[in-house]
Amino acid sequence: MKIGIRSRGKLIAGTMVAAAALALPASALAASASSARHNPPATRDAGCTFQMTKVWLGIGNGTSTATTIRYALEFSNVGRFTCSLVGFPGVSGAGKNGAQVSPAAVRVGGKFSAVLSRGQTAYAILKVVSAGSTPGCNKVPGARFRVIAPNQTGVTVINGFTFTACSNKVTLLVSSVHFGTGIPQFNV
């Protein structure tokens, strides 16, 4: 069979349309499978769990007065979903062996919440009152902080922090969480 120029053009055009029709579903399937792997998961606004919260002591020496020193406790969402922290963290001093050496921190101020997208941080201010300025203090050495993020039960230990605590008096005060990173001299 002999095909003319006009017929040849129609044959080529028809073949291209057919090939495109076959390729379109395959490329659509590949694109949807590809985007399913790379899109972030859907968000949910639930409480942050221990596994999705990184707790750390803010950088710097803190700010101090004659009787207190302030540090920012930071809580970062390292999970896959948006989550929230509500209220106050639990904080206590511990000795070198990890045992609690002082009463738990007293909560000061109002209760707040922080909604954290993946990678965002909230903070609470930790005030350490000088054991020397606390009347009737039974002084004991502290070597770390034990921190429980708000609405959680898992304990994070912050090592390498030496201080003098009172085994019989409260020397730690902690604020509620606030959104953002903390700068102690500006966030009292």
Instruction: Estimate the global geometry from the Cα principal axes.
Output: elongated
**Helical coverage, percent range:** 10-25%
In angstroms, what separates the terminal alpha carbons? Answer: 92 Å
Assigned CATH class of the largest domain: Mainly Beta
Major sheet: size, sense and barrel closure?
7 strands, mixed
> So, CATH architecture of the largest domain?
Sandwich
Q: On the 0-100 scale, what is the average pLDDT? A: 78
Q: Enumerate how many helices there are, as a single number.
A: 1
Would you tell me the structural class of the helices and strands?
A: alpha+beta
Radius of gyration: 29 Å
Regions with little confidence, pLDDT below 50 for 5+ residues = 11-43
- The number of distinct structural domains comes to 2
Description:
The chain is of the alpha+beta class. The protein has 2 domains: 1-39; 46-179, Sandwich (Immunoglobulin-like), CATH 2.60.40. It is 18% helix and 37% strand. It has 1 helix and 13 strands; from the N terminus they run H-E-E-E-E-E-E-E-E-E-E-E-E-E. It has one helix at 5-38; strands at residues 46-47, 53-57, 63-64, 68-77, 83-86, 90-94, 106-107, 113-116, 121-129, 139-148, 156-166, 172-174, 178-179. The strands form 3 sheets. Strands 2, 3, 4, 7, 9, 12 and 13 form a 7-stranded mixed beta sheet that branches. It is elongated, with a radius of gyration of 29 Å. The chain starts with a helix and ends in a 9-residue tail after the last strand.
